[in-house]
Amino acid sequence: MKPVPRDDNGHALTDRGSELFTTRIVNLGTSMTGVALLTDFKEVMLHVESGTEVLHVRGTLSGSETARLTSQGTSWILPVITESGQTFVHVASPSGTCNMSIFAWR
User: How far apart are CA 94 and CA 28, in angstroms?
Assistant: First the structure.
C-alpha cells in the first residue's frame, strides 16, 4: 500500500483513500461467492444495482472496470483493509440473480 496521505498540517488521513479501483459482478447467483480484488484497499463499497443507471464510474487504478450506480440500488460500505487477492467477503443474491458494482479505495 502507498503511505497514508497527510493534510497540509501533516495530520494523517487514515480514513481516506487516494486511489479508486472499480469492478463489477454480473449475474451474481444464489450460491455464496468469495470476492477478492486485484489490489489492496482500505475501504470498499458494495452496490447492489437496481433501477435506472445514474452514473458510470471507472477507477484510477490499472485493471479497473466500469462500475455503475443505480437509482434504487443498495450500498454497503465495509471499513476493511485487505491485501490484493485475499477474499474479504462472500456474497450471494437472495433469489434469482443480481449485478453488483464494487468501489474500493486505497
Answer: 10
- pTM of structure: 0.85
Contact (Cβ atoms closer than 8 angstroms) between residue 45 and residue 102:
yes
Domain 19-105 CATH (choose: 3.30.460, 2.40.50, 2.60.40, 2.60.120): 2.60.120
Q: Which residues of 17-33 are buried (b: 16+ CB within 10 A; e: fewer)?
A: bebbbbbebeebeeeee
Domain extents in the chain: 19-105
CB 68 within 8 A of CB 49: yes
pLDDT digits (tens, 9 = 90+) for 25-84: 999 999 999 999 999 998 999 999 999 999 999 999 999 999 999 999 999 999 888 889
Spell out the residues 6+ positions from residue 23 whose beta carbon is closer than 8 angstroms to its own. 37, 38, 63, 64, 65, 67, 101, 102
